[in-house]
Amino acid sequence: MTVTPFDLFARSVHLHRGGEISRREETADAGRDGWRLTVLHAKTGDDVHADHWEVHPEAEKIVSCLIGKIRLHLRPERPGEAEEEIRLTAGTAAVVPRGRWHRIEPDIPSNIMTVTRPCGSRLEKLRPACPRVP
């Protein structure tokens, strides 16, 4: 087998449970037997769907800031609780618990790496805050 470099920003890498690694486009069934490693460059919140909550019911998720500064938001688990905000800088990471709704926002252009099992993942549009009445 010939070993060749590839662009990690171009597509996700699938880490199969059997030890194989594939570099292919994700499909609906991808991740059923392994994990997905994704690296992306985020200039704005649009690059990381910051206007949506995301959840992974099948596994925890690691979020790492490789370069830059990002904020990892965790949705409150109970009504009335505050949203948690974890600030990540270059070289730091956090583990999102299984089934915990979360979202990412870059403070400056940043390179981000995530690893999770993608099956069952869902997105939910962030509800805008109610406007304050003066």
Lay out the secondary structure.
Layout: E1 13-16, E2 21-22, E3 34-42, E4 52-55, E5 61-67, E6 69-74, E7 84-89, E8 92-96, E9 102-106, E10 110-116, E11 122-125
Antiparallel strand pairs: 1-2, 1-3, 3-10, 4-11, 5-8, 5-10, 6-7, 6-9
Quick recap:
The chain has 134 residues and is mainly β. It is built from no helices and eleven strands. It starts with 12 loop residues before the first strand and ends in a 9-residue tail after the last strand.
Question: Could you please describe the fold and organization of this structure?
Answer:
The structure is a single chain. With 134 residues, this protein is mainly β. It has a domain at 37-125: Jelly Rolls (Sandwich), CATH 2.60.120.10. The protein has no helices and eleven strands. The strands form three sheets. Strands 2-1-3-10-5-8 form a six-stranded antiparallel sheet, with no helix packed on it. The protein has a three-stranded antiparallel sheet with strand order 7-6-9, with no helix packed on it. The protein starts with 12 loop residues before the first strand and ends in a 9-residue tail after the last strand. The model has no long low-confidence stretch (mean pLDDT 89).
